[in-house]
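Response to reviewer comment R2.3. The reviewers asked that we include at least one raw input/output pair. We reproduce the pair for UDP-N-acetylenolpyruvoylglucosamine reductase here without editing.
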Amino acid sequence: MKILQDYDLATLNTFGISARAKFLTEVGSLAELEELFTLPEFKQNKKIFLGSGSNVLFTKDFEGLVILNKLKGIKILKAGAEVGKDFVLIKAMGGEVWHNLVIFAVDRGYWGIENLSLIPGTVGAAPMQNIGAYGAELANVLENVESIEIATGNKRIFTKEECELGYRDSIFKNKLKNKYFISAITLKLSKKEKKNISYKILSDHIEKNKIQIERSKDISNAVCQIRRSKLPDPKVIGNAGSFFKNVFVEDAKIKEMLSIYPHMPYFKENGMTKIPAGWLIEQSGWKGKRIGNVGVHEKQALVIVNHGGANGAEIKNLAEQIVASVLAKFGLELIPEVNLI
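Raw output as returned:
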């Protein structure tokens, strides 16, 4: 296993931030993963596992070991109590690109993750964030998570319930943050049609373009069209997609805000009301604004971009300014979805 020193991470994060890692290596097999745990560079340094770098902001150099998760493989499992006529279990390794897993599923006519098409990142990051989009989230289909405890090298399988999944949240982002490496996940997908097009942006797009939904792939294609029209390509301009989580508020707060902003968009979800963070940011005057090398995207206020040459501290500073202005205007605090390192 090769250990590189003083490695520039600019090509390994979608913000394109130049930050240096003291050490860097990659694991492409379970055998290499086992070897990793024996290395002095692993034992003696702080460490971070990195997938595609699509949900991370390096605010400074990393004085430790960065491990690239390159574990690949997607397969249909035969085991499972409810597998057969109605459901299928699919296991994917943590280093797989998430969208490749979506394509694997929809090409075979399976239902459950088509609304999560084109979400950037790897499979291993999906349960950490409990990724979600267009009225669906990973929690709806997750069966279990295979992991390795970083301190001991012991293997553990987490059930969905043990993952404590919440809105863009999980046990891996809280109580067990940096404690486990996710090596694989198993999803339970439906063989029968389970169409989910209730999310307004999605339903409006389908209606406007007269799209016939006959397969899960039709929804996947529609979601891809929407995402490509709204979100910038990190290969063109550095970004990590949605920088902030949407905001959930109590009914009393919603009534108060609607009395002032009657056209404010909001959505009911799990007994709470969700206000789009992008709307709050736009109303605070940030959409399309640029400060030096960083700015807010002109089409989607939820996206902070690196116009070129920015460092992580500049992006962090802009994010903090946005948080402060939204708090001052609305009395609501934005929480970053991106992991700050």
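The chain has three domains: 4-69, 74-190, 238-340. The chain has a mean pLDDT of 93. Further pairs are available on request from the corresponding author.
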